[in-house]
Amino acid sequence: MSTTTVAKPSAAPKGGRRKLTWPWIMLIVAAGLVLFSLVRVVSGADDLTSVGQVSGALQLAVPIAMAGLGGLWAERAGVVNIGLEGMMVLGTWFGAWAGYQWGPWVGVLFGLLGGAIGGLLHAIITVTFNVNHIVSGVAINILAVGFTQYLSNFTFAEAEGGSSKQSPRIDPITDITIPGLSDWLMDLQQKHWFLISDIAGLLGGLVTNLSLLTIVAALLIPATWWVLWRTSFGLRLRSCGENPVAAESLGVNVYKYKYIAVTTSGALAGLGGAFLAIVATGIYQEGQTGGRGYIGLAAMIFGNWMPGGMALGAGLFGFTDSLKLRGGAENVHALLLLVALLLVIAALWQLYKKKYVVAVISAAFSAAFFLWYFLTDEVPSQFVDAAPYITTLLVLALSAQRLRMPKADGLPYRKGQGK
């Protein structure tokens, strides 16, 4: 007499995080639009979701997204790239130097090349010589600033319209505006209807004065996801960041993939720098990166080392930075109401999860923001200037518990360990 054993399906681990599906993502986006529209109507800050605001946010987000994407390539291969800021600086200088002489698209190529040189230097120092990744990155940031300052003294200073601190003006890259549709969406947005005008403003910003380089940069985000998560090349590269010893034992040339990843990382950061010089301002200016390489690294961490999350983090910073530039105190004052409402939602969610202490803290902060909003008409100018950076710090602090970096990220590795 035989017996059969029926295996029971294992229960899903309690407390595990569910993967967001597209219906949930769309629902969250819709809820966010409703919340923004409500804040706009109550506060009267109609520029919150205007066509100009969305267009400006997109332009400000691209350099940060390119730096974050560069960081993602490097860290998925196990190399921490603190040198993104320096690679962006190289991208701004080389992009401007070639751009004002031979045209903006040649400038873009040279910006890529300048950043790639910085990435290659970082790879040689960290991969071949096994120097601490943080030390190497900081050194590249310092060297890039000094190197570009030195080059500017005998290139831009002698050029017509330039100086030792800035380049001559660069010809612009073609902007795209869809005629008819752009005007109709702008008219609809200016009616200030609840939700409808906000959607019109969002869509209008995507079809008005859109640089061709912005489109190229945006396409690089899904392209990175496809290469790293849907190809055998990407699997091998990511294995170098998770367990390089095991990867080498299976025949993967770990050094080669690390070199490719870090050089690509530098090229993407250089593209972000070239975008700043060619599209955002039209000239190279000393110090124009303004820490965007570090912010891109923060956006990558906020996105949990994934392209989509990184793009969301870059968009968040670009949005708050655009609010500061376009509306100043009025727009940032409206953000106080938005933060207060978000904290109310957070408190209710923590109550649902029976985390009463966190719920009480969220509710207390929410009450403080409500009082700040209703008892004042504007925020101090210093707070307006710091708003994008405060937003970055808050988002990183709130998302820290759900992060999982590549297991071998930043760890030393010597060729031959897997043999």
Question: What does this protein look like?
Answer:
With 419 residues, the chain is mainly alpha-helical. The protein has 16 helices and two strands. The chain has a two-stranded antiparallel ribbon. The N and C termini lie far apart (50 Å). 44% of the residues are buried.
Short description:
This protein has about 425 residues and is mostly helical.
How many H/I helices?
16
Secondary-structure element order, N to C: HHHHHEHHEHHHHHHHHH
Overall mean pLDDT score? Answer: 88
Total number of strands: 2
What portion of residues belong to β-strands?
under 5%
Distance between the termini: 50 Å
Fraction in helix: 55-70%
Q: Taking strands numbered 1, 2, ... along the chain, how are they ordered across the largest sheet?
A: 1-2
Low-confidence stretches: 1-16
| Helix/strand class | mainly alpha
**What does the radius of gyration come to?**
24 Å
Give me the secondary-structure topology.
Blueprint: H1 22-43, H2 51-76, H3 84-102, H4 104-128, H5 133-154, E1 175-176, H6 181-189, H7 196-206, E2 210-211, H8 212-230, H9 232-242, H10 244-249, H11 254-280, H12 292-302, H13 307-326, H14 329-352, H15 356-375, H16 381-399
Antiparallel strand pairs: 1-2
Helix pairs in contact: 1-14, 2-7, 2-8, 2-11, 2-12, 2-13, 3-4, 3-5, 3-11, 3-12, 4-5, 4-11, 6-7, 8-9, 12-13, 12-16, 13-16, 14-15
